[in-house]
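Exam revision sheet. Question 4 asks you to relate a sequence to its structure. Input first:
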Amino acid sequence: MALKYHAPRGTSDLVFPESEKVERLVEIACEACALYGYRRVSTPVLESTGLFRRSIGEETDIVTKEMYTFEDSGGESLTLRPEGTAPVVRAYLEAGLRSEGLPQKLYYAGPMFRRERPQAGRFRQFSQVGAEAIGSEDPLLDVEMISLSVAIFDDLGLQRYTLLLNTVGCRACRPAYLEDLTTFLGDVSGRLCDRCRERAKKNPLRVFDCKEERCRETLKNAPVILDAVCSGCGRHFEEVISGLERLGVPFSVDKHLVRGLDYYTRTTFEFKFRDIGAQDTVSAGGRYDYLVEELGGPDTPAVGFSMGVERLVMAMDAQGLDPFGRRRLDVFIAGAPGVDRGRLLELLSRVRSEGVSADTDYMDRGLKAQLKQANRLDARLVVLLGPDEMERGEAVFRDLEESRQWEVPLTEVPARALDFLGGR
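Answer key, structure tokens:
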């Protein structure tokens, strides 16, 4: 039978056991954020379109080509969020979090949306976990963001990645550099692709995002912003490097590293993983000292990062990691023909109230078929209920792995199940 409906192109369903792997991965990342003193914030998946045009940049690929934007019945232009930083900053301002003291350290997790060309590691709906520290220009916060990413990788058992680091300057030093870069791009225009020639006119830094080999080769001779930064940006970058060295975090300075969002200043960084293909950036971020002001707040420095959940899964798969394992059912309660289903339901509820995962049959199966179902669910313990046993106030515990069974008082089933499971 042909299916009538499918998941939209560039999206996918998460079903068991992959859904549990992703859920646990996000939990681990969020636990690391909390360990570093960050607090959870949740924002709507819908935001005013102007928020992203103002923050990300009018000429970025995200704004010009990739946003899902529509006008609602009231005439308001809304966009499915393509990234998490701007919404978090908007929430920080709207909630008046500045009054609670600075820096405000916030983290988030959830879906993002971009109308990109689907390929391995690039989806139209994807999930991110990210953290933002708003209110401090201390370069050690930049170091903390990077070390937090490393901590998450460590917690997941991930290796074989490279940290790339750069600075993109500030308002004081970037304009002069952009003039030099624009002049260079004009001189080599004939050796650039059409897209880079367009970028050179509107947003010259974006040329460094190009993946075409002829452009990458040409840009090797481009002026480097690291050579043109002001003394303040230079000192900031040196302190970031010093902090990473003190923590023993290996890195490489990539003088052409830029981020695809216009709000970045000073520190930018990316973690690239081997073995996962072209879309190899799993975590990235940097400083955005002017974004709060751009969105209507006071002059407030900030720094943050985000990591792609789907790419984390790809990296784990590529490295043969499955640290979570399949989540097993603790208890399956099987009822023989003629058993009092009401009493079975009460027992099921009592077991679950102890924090034990439990299930039963809802398909009117025979006892043998129920035991097969318990096997499929990988149940650690089967509780057998029959009319005669229940009349005597007893139940039968069966350990499917050890092929043994024993009777227990019916009133003690929840406690005895906990004992069998190791007290959880």
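Marking note for examiners. The longest helix spans residues 18-35.
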